[in-house]
Amino acid sequence: MNQQYELEELVVNSYPKQITALTEYIKGYERDMQLAAENPKPENGFAGMEIMGEYYTEKEKAGKAIIQACAQMTETNEITLGTYRGFSLTLFYYGIMNQYKIKIKGVKSKPCSKSLQTCSFS
């Protein structure tokens, strides 16, 4: 009898909430995929990005600007870094690993640890 009650509880309360949460999660990623499609990566070259209010068309200069932003951070709080292919970028210091990390955000957020090229939603 107890197992039947637990199963009814799952079917009536838990599963519908999980389905709703996962449906919203999927919709968020679908919107992010649409944003990525609207701002495609060029086949050759660099898509360009805004870092700390300045737009860079060269990957090396953008990388140096990111390194400079890391060097200027005085707190571990997340800061707005810029934009890339329509997505906002934030920068934070992850003290446990002694690393700076970038988070790319559309509707959903995704941390990037290696490169923005591999972090994109497309």
How is this fold's topology laid out?
Layout: H1 2-38, E1 49-51, E2 54-56, H2 59-72, E3 79-84, E4 87-94, E5 99-105, E6 109-112, H3 116-119
Antiparallel strand pairs: 1-2, 1-3, 3-4, 4-5, 5-6
Q: How would you characterize the overall build of this protein?
A:
The protein is of the alpha+beta class and 122 residues long. It has 3 helices and 6 strands. The chain has helices spanning 2-38, 59-72, 116-119, and strands spanning 49-51, 54-56, 79-84, 87-94, 99-105, 109-112. The chain has a 6-stranded antiparallel β-sheet. It is elongated.
Stretches where pLDDT is under 50 for at least 5 consecutive residues are none
Distance between the termini: 49 Å
Task: Label the structural class.
Answer: alpha+beta
Percent in helix: 40-55%
Using only C-alpha atoms, the radius of gyration works out to: 20 Å
A few lines on this structure:
The protein has 122 residues and is an alpha+beta fold. It has helices at 2-38, 59-72, 116-119; strands spanning 49-51, 54-56, 79-84, 87-94, 99-105, 109-112.
Features:
six-stranded antiparallel β-sheet; elongated; alpha+beta; 45% helix; 122 residues
